[in-house]
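Re: [ENG-882] Designed sequences occasionally contain unexpected residues at chain ends

Forwarding the minimal case from QA. Structure tokens:
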């Protein structure tokens, strides 16, 4: 059955382009800029549009209390654990149009293609669109999949605040997602297997002209928030010896992060300070308080922790020398995830059978699959993206690669759903 599956590449492409029009971003000269922050007007429009596509196909749609959306094609034995796929449609500020969306719309097209090509499978097949894979609004990524897998305490999640001090509870309720967050959690064995299709977000597949990547593990991400409090005031009148400029301390801390991440010598250690909020943020005022967010990842969580130790030593030295306070808040420190050998072998088998070149690789980006691995055997399918670029408007994946990834996904779902 599987080789007869036909992917409607033109429709999939046109849907990706339509989804990209739900954006808060200003048009950019360097590509189609997409900004779609969770529960913004554009996110809600995108969700409504996706639900319509699913309902038009006769699939069942369910939304949970945090807005995770489940689109299900019922199998002939609907009580068996379903086979699932999916990803996210939220996008960081000034991003591209493929991150996450390929896995959602590709997943939908895979299900439609299976429905066109043959009878209902034994197990149901379900597409999941996760809420807030991106940490932009509430500071922590994979909100939906953390709650699904029981990795995040529901009360802590509801109390998370955005930059306007609106809580997740208030924002989700206003968006129409009501009920206890505790109800989001799914039991173990809810899914028979999980596969996520995603752009690689790195250069390896394109560099080696390989159209399919099979992810064997996902690196361990962690997030921290550092708040530096010094002593500010008038930029003209506050004399240099009397200052405790919090932004100067932040500058040293950012360079310490870079130094210690490089010092491991491991290509898999990465650390980024991607936000820096300066108070009061006026050109003629010495910064008195700065909040930094640190994103640090490694395939080896012990090495990641060793880098954090070195950063903390530097913080202590900065406190003494510059007479400031520095507080550190842990946002998340996650373990890596391993793909299931069975699912990886299945994907390898599909590629070998059809002569599709593939490569096994590690995902350095995180994905909702990191948390789905706590619920089910997982794997991920990567497709190449131009120059390995992602989280930028010029992110690009070739239509034929998207279609091929979708076809391999459909074939794997069909096989898993027959087990
Ligand atoms: C996901 O967007 C990540 O930052 O890896
Ligand atoms: Mn992303
Ligand atoms: Mn993504």
């Amino acid at each position: 059955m599987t080789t007869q599956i036909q992917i409607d590449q033109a429709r999939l492409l046109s849907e990706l382009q339509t989804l990209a029009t739900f954006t808060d971003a200003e048009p950019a000269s360097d590509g189609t800029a997409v900004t779609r922050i969770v529960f913004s007007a554009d996110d809600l429009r995108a969700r409504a549009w996706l639900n319509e596509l699913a309902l038009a196909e006769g699939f069942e749609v369910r939304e949970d209390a945090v807005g995770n959306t489940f689109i299900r094609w019922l199998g002939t034995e609907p009580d068996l654990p379903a086979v699932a796929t999916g990803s996210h449609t939220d996008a960081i500020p000034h991003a591209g149009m493929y991150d996450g969306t390929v896995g959602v719309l590709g997943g939908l097209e895979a299900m439609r293609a299976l429905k066109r090509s043959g009878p209902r499978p034994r197990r149901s097949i379900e597409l999941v669109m996760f809420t807030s894979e991106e940490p932009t609004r509430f500071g922590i990524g994979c909100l939906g999949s953390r709650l699904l897998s029981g990795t995040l305490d529901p009360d802590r999640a509801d109390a998370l605040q955005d930059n306007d001090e609106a809580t997740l509870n208030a924002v989700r309720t206003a968006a129409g997602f009501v009920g206890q967050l505790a109800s989001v959690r799914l039991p173990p064995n809810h899914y028979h297997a999980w596969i996520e299709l995603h752009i690689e977000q790195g250069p390896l597949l394109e560099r080696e002209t390989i159209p399919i990547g099979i992810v064997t593990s996902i690196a361990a991400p962690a997030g921290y928030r550092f708040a530096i409090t010094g002593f500010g005031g008038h930029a003209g009148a506050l004399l240099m010896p009397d200052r405790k400029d919090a932004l100067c301390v932040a500058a040293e801390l950012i360079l310490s992060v870079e130094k210690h991440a490089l010092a491991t010598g491991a290509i898999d250690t990465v650390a980024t300070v991607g936000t820096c909020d300066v108070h009061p943020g006026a050109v003629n005022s010495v910064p008195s308080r700065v909040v930094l967010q640190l994103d640090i990842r490694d395939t080896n969580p012990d090495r990641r922790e060793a880098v954090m130790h070195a950063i903390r030593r530097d913080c202590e030295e900065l406190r003494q020398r510059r007479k400031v306070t520095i507080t550190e808040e842990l946002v998340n420190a996650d373990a890596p995830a391993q793909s299931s050998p069975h699912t990886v072998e299945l994907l390898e088998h599909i590629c070998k059978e059809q002569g599709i070149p593939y490569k096994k690789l590690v995902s350095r980006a995180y994905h909702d699959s990191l948390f789905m691995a706590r619920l089910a055997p997982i794997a991920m399918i990567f497709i190449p993206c131009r120059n390995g670029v992602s989280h930028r408007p010029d992110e690009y994946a070739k239509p034929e690669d998207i279609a091929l990834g979708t076809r391999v996904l459909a074939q794997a779902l069909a096989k898993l759903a027959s087990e």
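QA comment: On inspection the terminal residues look reasonable. The pocket of manganese (II) ion (ligand 2) is lined by residues 92, 99, 134, 391 (CB under 6 Å). Proposing we downgrade this to a documentation issue.
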